[in-house]
Write a structure and sequence with these properties.
The protein is α/β, with parallel strands linked by helices. Helix content is 39%, strand content 23%. The protein has a domain at 3-13 and 26-102 and 169-253: 3-Layer(aba) Sandwich (Rossmann fold).
Length: 259
């Protein structure tokens, strides 16, 4: 399977505050190295503060790394233009409802990435929006709605549609299911898997719910104190974890887990 993303020796260091007894010091990240193949789902798990969100925000271009390299399809990500990066990697944030501008209609929210990053005609933009709505299961009627007029599930679908509108190679989902109840979480996960089967999209999925991780992932990275303590297939992580931290993490989230 073709390697799509390659992260090599990625680090993020933070300066300790000069203030006396400051508590503002942040745990450094890295060095981190891993690869993601085309059409695969990689889940990143670990306790709060382990570095999961920092890692995916660096990959998405929201935070600058201190050192290390990120390659997509063999090219350094730093060499790509902003438009090329947007077409390669898109991100869905932790609370999709709050990430949608309440003063802008759904139609404008979905049109904006196309207007900024493509040379599509108005008709092509309309067609792309319609195809993306169909992909996530939303009706065209929602284009005239504002985000606060939608249910939480519909807001999640709009956020997903915005991430998919440019047909990216990779979609990063950072704790996007935390605000949904368990039945809706599995509906979103199954929608993501259905889209992956149709489009070949790769996912980087940050989550705490280990049942969901097991359900949708091909590979799992376990992080602790800014480092990867285990990186393996989902089957190996859940059935034969090697690191004691991984075993403890599984036990804390799955009371019926056996060593």
């Amino acid at each position: 399977m073709q390697t799509l993303l390659n992260v090599s020796n990625l680090c993020k260091n933070y300066k300790r505050s000069a203030r006396f007894l400051s508590s503002g010091f942040r745990q450094p990240l890295g060095p981190i190295s891993f690869a993601l193949s085309q059409g695969e789902t990689l889940s990143i798990v670990g306790e709060s503060g382990s570095g999961k969100s920092t890692l995916v925000q660096i990959i998405a271009g929201l935070i600058e790394p201190s050192s290390g390299d990120i390659y997509i399809k063999g090219q350094p990500l730093s060499n790509l233009s902003q438009q090329q990066r947007c077409k390669s990697i898109r991100m869905i944030f932790q609370d999709p409802g709050n990430s949608l501008n309440p003063k802008v209609t759904i139609g404008r929210i979905l049109a904006a990435p196309l207007e900024l990053n493509t040379d599509f005609s108005a008709d092509k933009i309309k067609q792309q929006i319609q195809e993306t709505l169909d992909l996530v299961g939303l009706l065209p009627d929602y284009l005239s709605f504002y985000p606060n007029m939608l249910s939480s599930m519909q807001q999640h679908k709009v956020a997903l549609a915005r991430a998919l509108i440019l047909n990216p190679d990779i979609v990063i989902a950072d704790e996007i299911l935390a605000t949904l109840d368990i039945s809706l979480r599995f509906k979103i996960v199954n929608l993501l898997l259905d889209i992956q089967e149709k489009k070949g999209t790769s996912y980087i999925f940050v989550a705490h719910n280990m049942n969901l991780v097991r359900h949708m992932s091909d590979h799992v990275i376990v992080m602790h104190n800014g480092l990867i303590v285990e990186n393996n297939s989902t089957e190996e992580i859940f059935n034969a974890p090697q690191a004691s931290y991984t075993k403890n993490l599984l036990q804390s989230h799955q009371p019926d887990y056996r060593k």
